Amino acid sequence: MPRSRPHHHATPGGRAFALAVVFLSIFGLLPVRPVGTWLTPFSELAYRVIAPVSHPISEVSRWVAPGRIESLVDDPEQVLAEELERTRQALLREKLENERLRSIIEDLQRGFALDPGTAVRPLTCAVIGNPSDLTAGLLTVRAGKNAGVTTHTVATYQGIQLVGRVERVLGSVSEVLPITTRRAGRLDGVVMLDDDGAHMLACSLTPTGDGTLRGPVTEPRTPDPEHPLAVGQDVRLRVTDGSWPDSAQMLLLGRVIEIEPAPGQPLRRWIRVQPIADLRAVSQVVLRIPIEQTLESRP
Predict the structure, then answer these.
(1) SS3 assignment, position 57
(2) Integer Rg of the chain from CA
(3) I want to staple 164 with a disulfide (CB 3.0 to 4.6 A). Which of 28, 83, 175, 178 is the partner?
(4) Residue 142 to residues 137, 285, 293, Cα–Cα distance (Å)
């Protein structure tokens, strides 16, 4: 009897191989960009698996074949020059930071020395809202009733430049009315004709709306040629009517940037004063909180 031919059943391995061939054939005809996008998650997964092992393997390869690795490195002198430049930049950055911190410390010490009779608690806080138009805008600072802030608190820049007074206090934030806002109104001050304050001229300044203050100077009947009014002199707050807290007295309003004849009175002079910082761009302020107010506000 003739033998029946045996039936060949496909093995699992053969079926997998055939499917792989078909899959790769179809896959090879697809556009490259969609395929790459679809495979991105798999590549990231593979990188996470391979990355921890790649660094030790690289170190071993550098130890086994150092000559081949060194051939990929630039000229040794260039490498040293680049390393020296990086070190120099790091030192310069540290120097700038040290100078900035030293300046802040000196300014704070000067600020507290202006009125040693007023006990205040300084509080540095961030400005989280800057007005784009100072004709009506307020600065929102990250400190409020929870920090002891009251309407008797004034805001300064680096402890010496008067920014404004706290107008509204909430739980965790406060709103400061800058002195360069038109709504802040007139400010009485003095021009420091010398460093120790022995010679001063009274002045009355009004916000102009462009970030400066402007107004007349009360000059003596007999001019003092040894202490003339000049551009660059400091102008400080000095009020006698109680309209500002004592902690604000003698804080810096700015510096004289212009001297001009008074409108309609050529024999009198007006000055224009500019703060040492742009109040529309300050990122943080130092609040001067009177300690008496802090104690009273606590239950």
Answers:
(1) helix
(2) 36
(3) 178
(4) 16, 10, 19
Instruction: Measure CA 254 to chain center.
Output: 21
Contact at 8 Å (CB) between 213 and 256? no
DSSP H or E segment with residue 43: helix 32-64
Distance CA 139, CA 185 (A): 16
Residues 93 and 86: their CA atoms lie apart, in Å, by 11
The more confidently predicted of residues 287 and 224 is 287
> Given phi > 0 = left and psi -120 to 50 = alpha, else beta, which region is 136?
alpha
Residue 87 near residue 95 (C-beta atoms within 8 A)? no
pLDDT band at 250 (very low <50, low <70, confident <90, very high): confident
- For the chain, the first-to-last Cα distance in angstroms comes to 114
Mean pLDDT of 134-160: 86
Burial 129-144, CB ≥16 within 10 A → b, else e = ebeeebeebbbbbebb
Residue type, 203: C
Alpha helices in 65-171 (DSSP H): 66-70, 76-114
Confidence band for 71, pLDDT divided at 50, 70 and 90: very low
Structure tokens at 147: 């920090």
CB distance 211 to 274 below 8 Å: yes
Token duo for residue 297: 């506000």
Query: Position 43: which residue type?
Result: S
pLDDT reading at 269 higher than 60: yes
Measured distance CA(27)–CA(187) in Å, rounded = 78
